[in-house]
Amino acid sequence: MSIIKTEELTKLYGTGDTAVTALNHVNLMIDAGEFVAVMWPSGCGKSTLLHLLGGLDRASEGRVWIDSRDLAQLDDTQLTELRRRKIGFVFQFFNLIPVLDAVENAALPLILDGARPDEARAKAADWLRDVGLADRLHNRPDQLSGGQQQRVAIARALVAEPMLVLADEPTGNLDSRASDEIATLLRRVADDWGRAVLMVTHDPRIAAYADRIIFLKDGRIVDETKLAGSREPDEAKMVREKAEAL
Does the pTM exceed 0.90? Predict the structure, then answer.
């Protein structure tokens, strides 16, 4: 079952001779339980794609479906509801609230959606245990390492039981060891918890954790590679060579 589907997705900024094409007729599909990485040179539409798929921006042309719902047919209230209940977001810089502890940060999506705070915190604590933070439930962000903060962010993304996780350079602010731990955790999000995961990354080694890699250049899909799933150095080397050749 396709969780994401796009059809000729296009985004233009500006008009006339000064118009810039950030995305150019992009067609893609991502199924439940599939982990897909997107690689591209800087400035070729990364943020634009995530904003369109997450319902944060409107396409200039083409269409986006999330769980068979056409985003163009939803008003702002419906889009907000879809983001809260169907999509989890993971960012490069974690975006945690400094004065809240891990449980309070992870519970925020449920509380914002009207859940009782005690129930939201209990569910958040369960997810924090699932992502390996059973002993850090009441630590604030400044008491956590970068990798631990990103685990809190992943728990926050999963707490509302979304069917899709959008990860924007989730290892870009981490060292190599923490990066591997986060990539392994996102792999679990797809394999063990059945979520569709779309991750943007510039790191071929991290992209090699995915089932499939989509390469974009100048706003277009120029190549697509299905991985064997071994996540061995040879696969990362192949991804790096392909990215450099495009």
Answer: yes
